[in-house]
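dumping this here so i dont lose it
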């Protein structure tokens, strides 16, 4: 027998359907925290996909990332940067990743830390060359302290080329790091760094920092949702901000306790502060093929830089 109230249809009020609610800074913070946690989980799942780079040994990928990062920053030719951009794009596609997710972050970083930082270099104040667009014109030259301001300030072709090349360097550097981290687990990266004789104190700091950030993010998210379910919508935004401000110390204390429990669990399982890996897997044919491809790519980039220097 179904109760009568379960058979009643709920009347939906559609008057406020088009009303858009703005998120407070607390909601934005929680959104970013949830994004960090989601990204951490997604990194694990993307590294387990049956893609090309996922099948490569982590040591080979870390060596490829470091060597390619050096070549990207040493390369002074836009053709070489374009070749590297195309190769990274093909590797992301062959690894069954979404290139949009990688290049969205790479282009955003390249815009803020590449283009906006280097854009003054396109002016003739810093880079001499052939004028393209004149921005300002004065009656005569001016001398301000040790700086000489020319009669005309314009964008030069050489300066624009320089800005584009430096911005491409930033985009390629961020792209290769995001690509390798998306196809390699965090444990695999730490294990590879240990194989390359990176000091144990650095690996310990890296591992524990990652665990603490993850514990802190989880604690903040759980506390936020518990507050919102019990009280959040009953008060004003100012009251909510005051409560959050008063709970910051509690959040750090609770997250530190969870961090300590994780560390004690590691100690109980025999962790003595050093990283010792004894079960390194042997390199497979696909690893040697990728090493040959990496050598060919780096050699080609160096030849392009030498020819078009």
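and the seq i came up w/
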């Amino acid at each position: 027998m179904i109760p009568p109230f379960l058979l009643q249809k709920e009347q939906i009020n559609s008057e406020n359907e088009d009303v858009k609610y703005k998120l407070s800074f607390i909601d934005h913070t929680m959104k970013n925290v949830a994004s960090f946690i989601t990204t951490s989980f997604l990194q694990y799942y993307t590294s387990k996909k049956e893609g090309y780079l996922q099948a490569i040994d982590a040591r080979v990928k870390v060596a490829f990332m470091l060597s390619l990062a050096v070549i990207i920053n040493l390369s002074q030719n836009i053709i070489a940067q374009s070749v590297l951009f195309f190769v990274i794009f093909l590797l992301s596609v062959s690894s069954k990743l979404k290139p949009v997710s990688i290049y969205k972050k790479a282009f955003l970083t390249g815009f803020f830390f590449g283009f906006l930082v280097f854009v003054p270099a396109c002016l003739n104040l810093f880079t001499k060359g052939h004028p393209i667009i004149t921005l300002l014109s004065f009656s005569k030259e001016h001398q301000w302290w040790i700086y000489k301001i020319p009669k005309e300030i314009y964008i030069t072709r050489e300066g624009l080329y320089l800005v584009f090349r430096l911005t491409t360097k930033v985009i390629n550097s961020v792209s290769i790091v995001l690509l390798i981290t998306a196809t390699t687990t965090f444990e695999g990266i730490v294990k590879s760094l240990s194989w390359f004789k990176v000091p144990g104190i650095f690996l310990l700091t890296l591992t524990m920092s990652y665990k603490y950030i993850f514990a802190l993010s989880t604690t903040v998210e759980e506390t936020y949702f518990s507050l919102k379910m019990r009280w959040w919508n009953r008060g004003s935004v100012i009251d909510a901000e005051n409560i959050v401000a008063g709970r910051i110390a509690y959040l750090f204390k609770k997250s530190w306790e969870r961090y300590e429990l994780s560390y004690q669990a590691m100690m109980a399982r025999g962790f003595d502060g050093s990283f010792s890996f004894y079960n390194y897997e042997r390199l497979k044919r696909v690893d040697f093929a990728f090493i040959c491809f990496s050598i060919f790519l780096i050699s080609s980039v160096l030849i392009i830089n030498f020819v078009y220097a």
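Residues 14-23 have pLDDT under 50 and may be disordered.
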